[in-house]
Amino acid sequence: MDQNKKKRPALFLDRDGTVNYDPGYISSPKKIQLLYGAREALIRFRAAGYLIIVISNQSGIGRGYFSDRELTLIHQRMDEKLGPAKPDAYYYCPHIPDDRCSCRKPETGNLERAYQEWPIDKNRSVMIGDSLSDLEAGRNFGIASFLVLTGYGHKSLQRSREKYPQQVQAFDNLARFADYFLGK
Questions:
Q1: For residue 162, what pLDDT is reported?
Q2: 68 an active-site residue?
């Protein structure tokens, strides 16, 4: 990281079920469909000075459902749909859960990598996603973490409240989170 660059807060976010509809393994750019309010929410975070960094588990690669090249095309399509809200970076884990790697959420390998590669102010950064592994990855990394109720959010909220009573904040979608976190 260039130490001369001013540190900025980062919005770390999950991809599938948080930014775009999650029909299962997304193996084609044609399957990218943004969730309601996601683009506008990311534009607001960008205007507030946040880096936008996607952290996702993509075990479809490890399972042979799609390749790294196909994932690059999926991210390019997502960038086209998001326009000025496109992420600054995508970090993903291509491994299956049994691989027990350090980059698969809830592990923090990709968050740590982003922190090394970008001028991130960790104290003002936040993680949001639709699964318990997203919430735990952010907490394990030492940043505030929140759930959206899109994707697997409702199921994850119940599981997270069992594990972290009274400590989970959840929002209907990314737009509602932006209202809460940045103000209306």
A1: 75
A2: no
